Amino acid sequence: MEQTAKCSLHRIDDWLIVLKEHHILKSLGKEREAFEKSLELPAIPEMIFDQNSLSICFCQSNNMSEELDNEKTCKIVFNALDALKLVDPKNITIEVPFAKDWRESRANNVGDLVAHRPYDWTFTTPYAGTLSGLWDVSPASEGLDMDYLRRKDPIHFFINTTLYEDELGDNGVSILNIKFRAMSSGFFLLQRFFLRVDGGLLRVYDTRLQWRQNDW
Fold it and tell me: What is stated as this protein's family in its record (predicted)?
């Protein structure tokens, strides 16, 4: 019998934090096939936690299940599938240092130079979460409150979960990870895409969300 993702819920004022975690997506099977068909990529990361997700929901009602099922409820959800949908499926501008030498050494062997479909094999994504519900989004000049983040407020709970990871054929690492901490005074989320291509590139894309009690 197939196990479902473990789900944990946390309430912070009018916010409901929903964490779902499960094992790595299997390399074979219907779930794998369905996941791959949802993407345009010719290959996907080695380690995908397809059922891992973190949802931040604005939930003023005491009926949490009703709010979660309501399509009008304001939510920000972080998951692997939506993140990988933003990976470039047609172009790649990064090569490992020895790629050119490898091609030149096989220039006379046509069989070794079969054209492969180009795609961003580093799985770089500009993903910053998936919005749903009746949000009113507008630009703001105010940045993060760094003084607030440096405070030593007691942490009520902490989340550290991974959406996907790949070792790039032993040429580095690509990982999308989420950290979340909640205090009585608010919460802070950091989603980080980290990429290291050995001998070639270091890249970090951060998405940071902050809420404080006095933000209302």
Answer: Belongs to the TIP41 family.
| Residue 171 in domain | yes
Q: Are 121 and 92 in contact (CB under 8 A)?
A: yes
Q: Which domain holds residue 77?
A: 6-136+144-212
Find the farthest-apart pair of alpha carbons in the chain and give their distance in angstroms, rounded.
Answer: 70
The full DSSP string for 35-74 is HHHTS--SS--SEE-TT-EEEEEE--SS-HHHHHH-TTS-
Q: What is the pTM of this model?
A: 0.86
Dist CA 89 CA 43 (whole Å): 9
pLDDT category at 215 given cuts 50, 70, 90 is confident
Question: What is the model's pLDDT at position 114?
Answer: 45
Inform me whether the pLDDT recorded for 94 exceeds 90: no
Classify residue 164: in a domain, yes or no. Answer: yes
Helices (H) and strands (E) in the chain, counts: 5, 10
